[in-house]
Amino acid sequence: EGRPNVMDSIKNGQIQLIINTSIGRKTSEDAAKLRRSAISCNIPYSTTISAARAMTEAIRALQTNLLDVKALQDYYTRGDR
Q1: Shortest CA distance to 45 belongs to which of 5, 6, 12?
Q2: CA 16, CA 56: separation in Å to the nearest integer?
Q3: How far, in whole angstroms, is CA 62 from its chain's centroid?
Q4: Which sign, positive or negative, has the C-alpha torsion 59, 61, 62, 68?
Q5: Regarding predicted confidence, which is higher, 18 or 29?
Q6: What pairing do the DSSP bridges indicate for beta strands 45-46 and 18-19?
Q7: Which of 7, 17, 43, 77 could pair with 38 in a Cys bridge, judged by C-beta atoms 3.0 to 4.6 Å apart?
């Protein structure tokens, strides 16, 4: 309600992560607008506490460890079959 609001903050690059656990008809309309803005601005968006927790753990891991990328086949050897 009113301006500036969260949508303005998203557009201005002031929001880096959105956790939105809404209930009800009006809030679901607002949530759809919020979700569209998050997607268009490439902002991580979560609708559950468990997903938000997983996101924060992943962010923390990326901040403290180097990311090691491997092909799926590298995790298995011929002897594992």
Answers
A1: 6
A2: 12
A3: 14
A4: negative
A5: 18
A6: parallel
A7: 43
> Whole-angstrom Cα distance, residue 55 to residue 51?
6
Partners of 19 in the beta sheet? 46
**Residue 13 and residue 42 in contact, taking contact as beta carbons nearer than 8 Å:** no
**Three-state SS annotation for 12-50:** CCCCCCEECCCCCHHHHHHHHHHHHHHHHCCCCEECCHH
CB atoms within 10 A of CB 81: 5
Number of residues that this document lists for the chain: 81
Which pLDDT band, with edges at 50, 70 and 90, does 62 fall under?
Answer: confident
Buried b (16+ CB within 10 A) or exposed e, 4-34: eeeeeebeeeebeebebeeeeeeeeeebeeb
Helix (H, G, I), strand (E, B) or coil at 9: helix
